[in-house]
Design goal:
Distance between the termini: 69 Å
CATH architecture of the largest domain: Beta Barrel
Radius of gyration: 25 Å
Order of helices and strands: HHEEEEEE
Strand content: 35-45%
Structural class: alpha+beta
Strand order of the largest sheet: 1-2-5-4-3-6
Number of domains: 2
Number of strands: 6
Low-confidence stretches: 29-47
Shape: elongated
């Protein structure tokens, strides 16, 4: 005896839907990885991606604390950004704990919430 509640048109639609989803995902992965070089626009967008943000600023003392996704090397000078505009430069010091880094303010104005891009 066949249980007819487990077969039927709804089962076929469900399997076709799954096949379409897998095919779309595969096509998207292949298409995204197939481009040989990023365009200038993509390269600029990648350079503007934040790699760290200021979580505490002490402008009177001349330092900030950064929380970084990618910790820049010690001694690196990086621009400090607020929104899309540069507001100063900081230099990464050797004082760090995990993803938290202290940086010296070289010029400009630093506030909590500002961010740094990749060096």
């Amino acid at each position: 005896m066949v249980n007819e509640s487990r077969s039927g048109p709804w089962r076929e639609r469900k399997s076709r839907s799954a096949v379409r989803w897998v095919a779309t995902l595969s096509l998207g992965l292949v298409w995204g990885c197939a481009s040989p070089e990023p365009s200038r626009l993509e390269a600029g967008a990648a350079a503007a991606r934040p790699c760290g943000r200021v979580i505490r600023a002490r402008p009177a003392d001349g330092w900030v604390v950064l929380e970084c996704v990618v910790v820049p090397p010690t001694g690196t000078v990086v621009p400090l950004m607020r929104g899309t505009r540069p507001v100063g430069h900081i230099q990464i010091t050797g004082r760090r704990t995990g993803e938290f880094v202290i940086a010296e303010i070289l010029n400009g104005e630093a506030r909590a919430g500002d961010w740094i891009g990749p060096p």
